[in-house]
């Protein structure tokens, strides 16, 4: 009995950590594209910044003057183009051109914003995912021998390569965040976890000085908890660090991807409630690429099609 | 001939890359670490230090009342601190400063002016905001953990 139980347990672990490439069927791929397009559309800068210079050039801003991207005369047509590109991508059309355009548009606008002297981190993870998808599709297109057909329309193989590239880029972002914590703190990040209450206080004060917000409910209680029981911060930060450094495990198979996705989203939600740090872009991209509701929807639609569809085959 | 050769090399490279399933993740990780802050790449340094002391910047008007920067300028306190930190880092890189606690009054004023120029530039977000005419004062409030309690201290950085 005991041996059978152990075998079952090891079997479950093996199923969770065994490498098994994630392959999306045609219907799931279509739904995944639409969901990823939603992530892109939700993260687009929709207002011209009106900024008229790059006092502290950031990234590509050192080589290119992106001031034009803040001018409404340029920005508005570029924005329309961006939504058209996202629509084309959702339909599986001209994927390399469409994603390339989104990448260039968002990089132009974000680089101009960051060239004002303040570095934000909201949009990077989504754009890294776009870059990963673009590279994945490009490699699939080259491997398939190139040709116009692959440029005009994305097939299931290219789409799978793209989605895989996007997942890998997101995993890279989380891994880098974990490495940064180890390196920037001189390896003492967890030892210093008692100081985390200062970060909580900082976020609270930023809300107070920016909008006159006072912490309420769980956010308010969290500060006292951190002061009285610093081990809570240690547990929390250990979990977060392990999740980031172990992000590569999310690429092992579908089950590992879902587990990684749920844990990451749960962690972000918790930080949202307790610290007021929502990281919405991160949650959206992880939800679509790792938890992947498109898979469940495709299974349901496929089953419905088999039951009630005319041809008797799932698409 | 040259075109065919290039195509073959490209195809072979793509096939080799695809043989290692996580090549994209490794490349992006490497680029993020090497390039640092270079949109869309980043070394994601948020909350990576857990320092013994932290601080926020806030702004008051001439009457001493706090100006809620998010409401008035569309800019929250966090980006102000980032501009401040960067200006301090520039002074250190130029050899004009060893530690931020050693800032002279003129250096503080110079940094405050830069931060306040950034603040007045504001954030459009589709809203037309009235220009804030009055003089602004920039303050820095620091927080330190001592004996299980958070101690705070405030200093005026400058005005503009």
Query: What structural category characterises the helix and strand content of chain A?
Result: mainly alpha
Radius of gyration of chain B: 23 Å
H/E element order of chain A: HHHHHHHHHHHHH
What fraction of residues of chain A sit in β-strands?
Answer: under 5%
- Overall pLDDT confidence of chain A: 91
What's the main sheet of chain B like?
Answer: 3 strands, antiparallel
Count of DSSP-assigned helices of chain B: 5
Strand content of chain B: 15-25%
Query: What is the distance, rounded to the nearest whole angstrom, between the alpha carbons of the first and last residues of chain B?
Result: 66 Å
Largest sheet of chain A: none
SSE map:
The complex is a heterodimer of chains A (315) and B (160).
Chain A: H1 2-17, H2 26-42, H3 72-90, H4 95-114, H5 124-143, H6 148-152, H7 156-184, H8 196-211, H9 217-228, H10 231-245, H11 254-275, H12 280-291, H13 293-308
Chain B: H1 2-19, H2 23-35, E1 53-60, H3 69-73, H4 77-93, H5 105-121, E2 137-146, E3 149-159
Antiparallel strand pairs in B: 1-2, 2-3
